């Protein structure tokens, strides 16, 4: 009699959202609460990790700008290896796995190895940060176009960012804290007005969230003087001023 083929596990690419456990999707929460193997990023909130069973094997693959616990190709190989050993794997990522989460690379390697992949979307960091700060990324009177860019990309100064921000447009920059000064200089060199409003949202959707506002010309000092740390996003455009007004109105209403 021939032996049965060994069971191959499934890799679930799960978006953990911007931080607050209440913002997980129901499917993400269910998968996490029944997990046996969880491979997670460093910025996933500890309260979300605590939803996994105590018996679950938790594997951190935290990344920072200066230090990586594990290279991306090694993370991909880890997911494949665990699945080929018969384990269902929850690959837990901040925000959405397919928005600057490198979920596409992980999915491609898993599928190439014959491993089934399921993607569980999450609230993206941009949407979570903007909503938490009451910044409408689009507004009928202010913006009908939204662009997402990575602030730590290679060849930053060689790229043409003209038209990404300005009248009627909103620009959201991921991973831009360390390069905020260069980003501002680049955008102004490409034609954006120095007085364009900006907002920096740190620790979105968490109790320690901060929202800092200023102008494009002052973005570098705003980040440096306030010692902004990741996770944080930069929002550039007229809509950031609307968020300021809505926050003020809310405070006044609560004070009545």
From TrEMBL:
<keyword id="KW-0627">Porphyrin biosynthesis</keyword>
<dbReference type="GO" id="GO:0004851">
    <property type="term" value="F:uroporphyrin-III C-methyltransferase activity"/>
</dbReference>
<keyword id="KW-0489">Methyltransferase</keyword>
<dbReference type="InterPro" id="IPR035996">
    <property type="entry name" value="4pyrrol_Methylase_sf"/>
</dbReference>
<comment type="pathway">
    <text>Porphyrin-containing compound metabolism; siroheme biosynthesis; precorrin-2 from uroporphyrinogen III: step 1/1.</text>
</comment>
<dbReference type="InterPro" id="IPR003043">
    <property type="entry name" value="Uropor_MeTrfase_CS"/>
</dbReference>
<feature type="domain" description="Tetrapyrrole methylase">
    <location>
        <begin position="10"/>
        <end position="218"/>
    </location>
</feature>
<dbReference type="InterPro" id="IPR014776">
    <property type="entry name" value="4pyrrole_Mease_sub2"/>
</dbReference>
<dbReference type="InterPro" id="IPR006366">
    <property type="entry name" value="CobA/CysG_C"/>
</dbReference>
<dbReference type="InterPro" id="IPR000878">
    <property type="entry name" value="4pyrrol_Mease"/>
</dbReference>
<dbReference type="GO" id="GO:0032259">
    <property type="term" value="P:methylation"/>
</dbReference>
<protein>
    <recommendedName>
        <fullName>uroporphyrinogen-III C-methyltransferase</fullName>
        <ecNumber>2.1.1.107</ecNumber>
    </recommendedName>
</protein>
<dbReference type="InterPro" id="IPR014777">
    <property type="entry name" value="4pyrrole_Mease_sub1"/>
</dbReference>
<keyword id="KW-0808">Transferase</keyword>
<keyword id="KW-0949">S-adenosyl-L-methionine</keyword>
<dbReference type="Pfam" id="PF00590">
    <property type="entry name" value="TP_methylase"/>
</dbReference>
<comment type="similarity">
    <text>Belongs to the precorrin methyltransferase family.</text>
</comment>
<dbReference type="InterPro" id="IPR050161">
    <property type="entry name" value="Siro_Cobalamin_biosynth"/>
</dbReference>
């Amino acid at each position: 009699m021939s032996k049965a083929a060994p069971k191959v596990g499934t890799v679930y690419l799960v978006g953990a959202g911007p931080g607050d456990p209440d913002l997980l999707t129901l499917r993400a929460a269910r998968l996490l609460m029944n997990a046996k193997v969880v491979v997670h990023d460093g910025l996933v909130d500890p309260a979300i990790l605590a939803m996994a069973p105590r018996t679950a094997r938790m594997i951190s693959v935290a990344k920072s700008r200066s230090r990586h616990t594990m290279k991306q190709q090694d993370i991909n190989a880890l997911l494949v290896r665990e699945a080929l050993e018969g384990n269902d794997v929850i690959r837990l990522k901040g925000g959405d796995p397919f928005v600057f989460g490198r979920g596409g690379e992980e999915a491609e390697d898993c599928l190439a190895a014959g491993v089934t992949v399921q993607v569980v979307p999450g609230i993206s960091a941009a949407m979570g940060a903007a909503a938490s700060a009451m910044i409408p990324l689009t507004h009928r009177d202010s913006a009908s176009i939204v662009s997402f860019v990575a602030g730590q990309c290679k060849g930053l100064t060689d790229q043409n960012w003209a038209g990404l921000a300005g009248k009627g447009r909103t620009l959201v920059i991921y991973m831009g804290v360390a390069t905020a000064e260069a980003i501002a200089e680049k955008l102004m060199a490409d034609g954006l007005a120095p007085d364009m409003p900006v907002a920096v949202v740190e620790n979105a959707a968490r109790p320690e969230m901060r929202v800092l506002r200023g102008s494009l010309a002052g973005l570098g000092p705003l980040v440096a003087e306030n010692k902004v740390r990741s996770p944080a996003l930069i929002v550039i455009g007229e809509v950031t001023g609307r968020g300021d007004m809505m926050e003020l109105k809310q405070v006044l209403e609560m004070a009545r």
